[in-house]
Amino acid sequence: xxxxxxxxxxxxxxxxxxxxxxxxxxxxxxxxxxxxxxxxxxxxxxxxxxxxxxxxxxxxxxxxxxxxxxxxxxxxxxxxxxxxxxxxxxxxxxxxxxxxxxxxxxxxxxxxxxxxxxxxxxxxxxxxxxxxxxxxxxxxxxxxxxxxxxxxxxxxxxxxxxxxxxxxxxxxxxxxxxxxxxxxxxxxxxxxxxxxxxxxxxxxxxxxxxxxxxxxxxxxxxxxxxxxxxxxxxxxxxxxx
Length: 241
Ligand SMILES: O=C(O)CCC(=O)C(=O)O
Hints:
- By secondary structure, the protein is α+β, with helices and mostly antiparallel strands.
- It has a single domain, classed as q2cbj1_9rhob like domain (Jelly Rolls), CATH 2.60.120.
- Helix content is 20%, strand content 24%.
- The strands form three sheets. Strands 1-9-7-11-3-2 form a six-stranded antiparallel β-sheet. A three-stranded antiparallel β-sheet has the order 4-10-8, with no helix packed on it.
- It is globular.
- Residues 83, 121, 135-136, 178-180, 193 line the site of 2-oxoglutaric acid.
């Protein structure tokens, strides 16, 4: 991340980076998901096992470069899932997360001239999200809020509904107050979420990652699937971005 990007992430608790997934790959991923869902349209779904391209995305060199700045050299995949909605999808509109919620795991701190984070979300859009479409909402800057007993209402002027295009990624810290509102567009929402943790911690049950080990195609992918530990942990061998 360059200084401008770090400034933006520090200021807001999230940032959008453009053109991560080429259009042909977005189309192929949508095809694979449509085929797998066979006419159903679950709000949340699993996808990592469906095709090697999803494992490749987990280890995307540009993504890992950004994660290195945000989390550090010792990082791991925590869990992944997809989200999709239509304007018929029932949602409990909400804001959740925030600094030191979830047993203190969601963290955001600067020390020794670098940021320190807990669970980080990468949300890749597989369909465009236009202004006012709904879906993900957040309170920019709330990852540094000093009042953890208060959350604004979902329609507060403090709440943003970021828009970004298919193939772009939005990165946010779970220390950011965020949530979901109803999807309003006549087109569907679909996004892939990959969540990364520091190498020493886990949010999900880390044994759930074992099922993906056989699908890992190289040491980098295997290293991303390691359970959390500290002693003798080696940093990732980061690829050229
Ligand atoms: O994108 C959404 O609708 C909500 C995502 C969310 O709450 C999360 O990733 O923790």
